[in-house]
Amino acid sequence: MRTSRSLKLLALLGVLSAGVAAGQQAGSQADAASTPAKVYDEGPDVVAPELVPRELTIPEGIVCKSESDDEIALSLIVDTAGKPRDVTVINPKGTPLERLAARIVEDDRFTPGTVKDEAVEVRRLVHVSIEGCLATKKDANGNSTDVFRLTAQPKQTFGVKKRQEYIPPEREESDEPPAPSAPDFPGLEHVGNGVSAPVPLNDVEAEFSDEARAKGIFGVCLISLIVDTNGKPQNPRVVRPLGHGLDEKALEAVRKYHFKPAMKGKVPVPVMITVEVNFRPY
Fold it and tell me: How far apart are CA 148 and CA 27, in angstroms?
């Protein structure tokens, strides 16, 4: 009898141990799943995701009530499976074209972005050019509703577009860095003349690179960026580099900035600003 009770007790302990181990493993997996993946911005060390081409069905014989076209700017994150998430219209106005552009981007598929041949999540900016018209659609009961239909294949252009800028062939030498050219960013304003400056809401200190620390390199790195209507930095670029890995550290810090957006009256607007990232020797 003692042997039988001992065997039952051991069997029960074994079941409990297995349950605890399974719970610990499930907990570890849940913790790993809840840990957010690092999101990279496009840069020299990041191979950007590439859009997988596709053709959308364009209905024939559309009777248009009114035609319209627009170019919509959106931000998104392409995950490690090549699927877009967090698709957001930049400077939204609530138009049907914006909603259609968002649906188009949400249905996109990409080859994943990589860093050192490893798939990573990458933040991208895309301009979607749409041509379409408002048409009447009837349901099975004969009721009519207005719908927006595409009349041509939408075109998607990734990255910030640069406006062409004339530079005189001769100009005096200067130690000052050139002013960053204004990107073609929807609704982009400039601080002043009724447009308030964005207000920083957090304080992110840039870290020294190992190389700069070892060599005693320090100074100020200038970064230009766009603060969007949500107060988030977009398209940060180095205007005055320091090298030795400090430029990358400066960009890494700037991408974590958060602002109260610039305001034009009571409306938030995107603006381009330049910030100093100071690497001090103490």
Answer: 47
What is the C-alpha end-to-end distance of the chain, expressed in Å?
A: 75
Q: From the CB of residue 207, how many other CB atoms can be counted at a distance below 10 Å?
A: 15
Q: Give the distance, in angstroms, between the CA of residue 190 and the centroid of all CA atoms in the same chain.
A: 22
Q: Which CATH superfamily is domain 181-279 in?
A: TonB (3.30.2420.10)
Phi and psi (nearest 5°) for 2? Answer: -60, -40
Task: Select from 115, 147, 154, 113 the least CA-distant residue to 133.
Answer: 147
Q: What are the beta bridge partners of residue 202?
A: none
Determine the Cα–Cα distance for residues 273 and 196; give it in Å rounded to an integer. Answer: 12
**What is the Cα 273 distance to its own chain's centre?**
18
Tokens of 2: 């003692």
Residue 144, amino acid: S
pLDDT value at 46 more than 70: yes
Instruction: Give the chain's mean pLDDT.
Output: 78
Residue-range domain boundaries for the chain: 41-159, 181-279
Token pair for 7? 């065997």
Is the pLDDT at 125 greater than 90? The verdict is no
Task: Note the pTM of the prediction, 2 decimals.
Answer: 0.51
CATH architecture label of 41-159:
2-Layer Sandwich (3.30)
CB-based contact 86:77 (threshold 8 Å): yes
